[in-house]
Amino acid sequence: MTLLDSTIHSAEVTKKLMPLDCCIMITDPSGLIVKFVPAQTFDMGVREGDYAVRGGTVDECIRTKSSIHKSLPQELYGVPIKATCEPLFEDGKFIGAYAIGLSLETQATLQQTAQAIAATSEEITATTEELAATATELARDLEKLKQSSKLVAEHVDKTEEILSFVSEVAVSSNLLGLNAAIEAARAGDAGRGFAVVASEIRKMADNSARSVTEIKKIINAIKSETEVITLGIIESTAIGERQATASNEIASAMQQLASSATNVENIAQII
Q: Which CATH number describes the domain made up of 3-103?
């Protein structure tokens, strides 16, 4: 059995062993197709007994007596095809050509899917990075607010110190007014004018004491609200920092996904 006969007899088995759909064409030295095993998903429009298409992969292989590899666009046969043709030699004599047309439909789908994943990953990465930047900026702003809240609390504490001083002055003034009233009573008619002044001093001291009490209540309320706000800011800052960290992790994961999609596309091109 000649080499050409062997390739003809093994063509059917060879097609079954191929993982992708394909067709197999074997010609004699003149380009006459002596064996053709058709594909299932595309039709190259040739049959046994025909001659190889002039200018095609097989014709070029026969003319050059060298290996020919071509990628045929989807427009020709409905699916993209990778055509490979090898010249056959026996005892140094050219005896024909052996060609395989391999469907790249799966490869094309894989490439399109990989490109879609990469594009989507890039969009999500950009959005996530923007979110991370916003979360980081928010965390910085909240930190500034927290510091401002601390300053407010410090000012409130200083205000309480001033009120304590005013309260002491009010007490002292009240005692001074009381002593003045006593002395005015001792002076009798001569001390009536001084008694009026002493009475007004005591009223002023009492009013100051009551005002200090009311102001303390207001300041304590402000202090309580400030503490609540500060606590909320601290919690919000922690949340913002966690969001920034999570967003950066998501962005990193999406970049890895985009890289994996690129690797898939590269593998698809190798097929």
A: 3.30.450.40
